[in-house]
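Collaborator request, handled under Task 6.
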Amino acid sequence: MRERVSVVVFDVNETLSDMSPMGQRFADLGLPEHLAKLWFASLLRDGFALTASGDLDLFDVLGREALRGLLSGADLDRSLDDAVQHVIGGFAALGVHEDVPEGVRDLRAAGLRLVTLTNGSTDVADRLFTQAGIRDEFERLMSVEEAGVWKPAPDSYRYASRTCGVPVEDMLLVAVHPWDIHGGARVGMRTAWVNRTNAAYPAYFRPPTISVASLAELANELGG
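Structure tokens returned to the collaborator:
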């Protein structure tokens, strides 16, 4: 596979960033930690729905509105506005998964071009990588804000291809989300599913080119 890959395209949220601390943000409000996953799934759903209908809004806007709907009526220890800001502020405090720094450095050392394509903001990605000491390993940080459509719409991946100046077939999409893997595969990208939790891959999505348990494993595969 290495012979065909020149650019590695990383998803950011959950793929590189460890979002598990977001549960504590809900616990701080006196709410169950599992609401963090429900909230994140809700904002993604609405982003996908807007893309499907031909519209677009920012990740931050959808995140805040989804929170307002989820928290309205809850017995909060602060105002709704303060509660929303407390949860959203958690993104700035996130770190990367343990396997990310070494894996990213090894992939770059193998001569691969590293970029990101996120449904979120490039500012969040920039801060995340700077704090982890790996910002310089990435050639470019891309967002669907510039693409005009959210992943997994085909044009989002084609935007990455045009921006990097390589065919989609020469790109490897790395993500933890099967829906993202499916979207990249449908436009001709090679794909790597990072399965840190030993989950089952949904049979209704196109399968990944490769499945790995960590970025270190991916670096070993591509480095070879």
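The cover message to the collaborator said: "Residues 22-93 form a domain with the DNA polymerase; domain 1 fold (CATH 1.10.150). The chain is about 45% helix and 15% strand. Please let us know whether this matches your experimental observations."
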